[in-house]
Amino acid sequence: MANDFTYYAPTRVVFGKGTEAQTGTLVKEQGCKKVLLHYGSGSARKSGLLGRIEKSLEEAGIAYVSLGGVVPNPRLSLVYEGIDLCKREGVDFILAVGGGSVIDSSKAIGYGVANEGDVWELYDRKRQARACLPIGVVLTIAAAGSEMSASCVITKDEGGIKRGYASDLSRAKFAVMNPELTMTLPDYQTACGCTDILMHTMERYFTNGGHMELTDTLAEGLMRTVLRNAEILRDHPDDYDARAEVMWAGSLSHNDLTGCGIREKDFASHALEHELGGMFDVAHGAGLAAVWGSWARYVCKDCLDRFVLFAQRIMQVEPGRDAEETALRGIAAMEAFYRRIGMPTSLHELGIDPTEEQLRELAEKCSIASGGRKGSAKVLQQADMLAIYRAAL
Ligand code: NZQ
Ligand code: ZN
Q: Distance between CA atoms of 335 and 321, rounded to whole angstroms?
């Protein structure tokens, strides 16, 4: 059954070659006084992108201060630094130049400046944000979809606690997307990005919360496109068209287009991965690939129709003797794809070998972060989370 829904995608997308040259004009249209230019750990400086953005801001006569150093699994400590800097300098707009980590760090800084109190309380579910500084994005990696999403994921340095917070207040005003900018990515990061993009739609596809034919068709087209182009990029990282397909898919996969009419999204694989990212600092996409197969085998009987559709329409496997065998073939085919693009399909392949005590801690933290229950394909509780972590070893 198709459920009621609200679809809100207010971000202006400026897509194509050389579009970063328009950044100064786009910021100027926002009517701000001073900008925080926020970026990562080195790639944007090294590629020359940051220099071009600075030039574009200067040509448009925009005053700005800079804060670099965002790391993957962005840290709360830098967010605090950014909040102090913005307050001191009177910043009223944040320009994120980077990927999900830089964008999420920008959103957290934006919340911290616009709301009283400790910003971590939002991630700790203690209160809701009332406002956020406006944010613009120049995207350098197709992956998290944060350039059009309402979400923001931050890691608290002490205890490695990774938590998300979502609000439409933080949706970017504009996103500049030049697929060429992603050509400097290491192959591993390109593959991590493709995995994350696929997963954002799969988390909405594997549901017991109703569906719509149009949403399914969009979701299936998106998944097939990313599967095909991820393999093109493995062999030809400079293929502009493949970069463009993947980049646009990254935004559409997480701006909720592929979730319209679905009452419950699953997002259990994401919840399981976030704890791995917090505890072991692994790349998000690789962490997802490492747990997905174990999650899928654990839940597929409870969401069999969707797993069969996935096996037939996306992975295009030969049907098995019964629905369950077909579903399992689809899961195996997806894992084979992950291996082909250099992604792990177990925690060991991810490069971590958690002890039984650490697995228990992961499951406990995952359960706390999810309020005790997570998922739609199958509702998971702490014992289920532990079983999946164990199966993923
Ligand atoms: O910091 P630099 O030097 O730029 O290096 C980055 C980083 O090491 C590098 N990189 C990015 N663009 C590059 C580049 N290297 C060369 N050339 C380029 N053009 O790539 C590495 C990964 O960057 P990062 O921003 O961490 O990647 P991603 O976009 O995958 O973001 C991951 C973060 O987003 C969160 C994840 O949990 C993780 O913390 N997520 C955010 C979501 C959201 N806000 O909606 C949803 C996602 O599910 C996800 O949870
Ligand atoms: Zn993700």
A: 21
Q: How far apart are CA 287 and CA 269, in angstroms?
A: 9
For residue 196, give the ligand 1 atom closest to its CA.
Answer: 48
pLDDT in tens, 140-187: 999 999 999 999 999 999 999 999 999 999 999 999 999 999 999 999
- Rounded to whole angstroms, how far apart are CA atoms 96 and 89? 17
98 in contact with ligand 1, CB cutoff 6 A: yes
Sign of the Cα pseudo-torsion (241, 43, 289, 364, in order): negative
| 136 three-class SS | strand
Q: What phi-psi label fits residue 335: left (phi over 0), alpha (psi between -120 and 50 degrees) or beta? A: alpha
Ligand 1 atom at minimum distance from 192 CA: 30
Tokens representing 134 are 């406006």
Q: Which residue has the tokens 């228990």?
A: 360
| Average pLDDT over every residue of 274-286 | 97
Residue with tokens 């593959």: 191
**Ligand 2 centroid distance, CA of 14 (Å):** 23
pTM: 0.98
Q: What is the DSSP annotation of 18-37?
A: TGGGGHHHHHHHTT-SEEEE
